[in-house]
Amino acid sequence: MAFEVDALDSRLTGGGLRAGALHEVAPRTCSLADDAAATLFLAGIAAREARHAGGPVLWVSSRNDLYAPGLAQAGLLSADVIHARPCDDNALLAVVEDAVRDGTPSAVVCEAGKISMVVSRRLQLVAADADLPVLLLRRHRRRDQDPLAEPSAAWTRWRLASAPSVRLDVSGVGRARWAVEVARQRGGEAFSLIVEGSDETGRLAVPAALGRRAAEAAGTARTAAA
């Protein structure tokens, strides 16, 4: 699953995200801005895969805070989303595994606070068997605890944070910018860069003002998760 952004795809093993795999994304901090960046990053990935595969996106979460207009701004329309609300993380795992084996969704997005190594390995295995992406949003359980500090079998692990948007010539808010960090990827190195957030088609972009210097300015990632 290519982002069609060379600064990202050229640094990812295989030129993009592996389709049949588990990918984890966590906000860098517990702030609402970083949480929104991580959520919309996943929404953009899921939206592009839904258009490519022609199936719905299953969004599994025990919370009831999905905001349809916000997801639509990242390209994921409410008509393309099936929202499942399991009672806890154990039920969440069962829902995800059943949906992936059924093969109806084009992608599965699930939200969880704590996932053990055993659970992440099961999710990776079912995703690989079905050749279907499972996108896991790891929320902060405590302010001082990094969700990606826990070991995982995920193919890639990402941290997302909001970044200052470009100044406009008129009053208003510019396109969102995110600090994107690949904390770990199989067969590749960690890195980070600044991108413009997902548009209405789910696509990211390198800020025009930064151009080739966007990835260089961010440099390689300073931390790596197990």
Topology:
Layout: H1 6-9, E1 22-27, H2 32-53, E2 57-60, H3 68-73, E3 81-84, H4 89-102, E4 107-112, H5 117-130, E5 134-138, E6 156-163, E7 177-185, E8 191-196, H6 213-218
Parallel strand pairs: 1-5, 1-6, 2-3, 2-4, 4-5
Antiparallel strand pairs: 6-7, 7-8
Helix pairs in contact: 4-5
Q: What would you report as the Rg, rounded to the nearest angstrom? A: 16 Å
Return the structural class: alpha/beta
Net shape: globular
The beta-strand count equals 8
The chain-level mean pLDDT equals 86
Largest β-sheet summary: 8 strands, mixed
Percentage beta strand: 15-25%
Range of helix content: 25-40%
* Largest sheet: spatial strand order: 3-2-4-5-1-6-7-8
General description of the model:
By secondary structure, this protein is of the alpha/beta class. The protein has six helices and eight strands. Helix 4 (89-102) packs parallel to helix 5. Mean pLDDT is 86; it is low at 211-226.
Keywords:
8 strands; about 20% strand; alpha/beta; eight-stranded mixed beta sheet; about 230 residues
Summarize this, please?
By secondary structure, the protein is of the alpha/beta class. 29% of the residues lie in helices and 21% in strands. The chain has an eight-stranded mixed β-sheet, with helices on both faces.
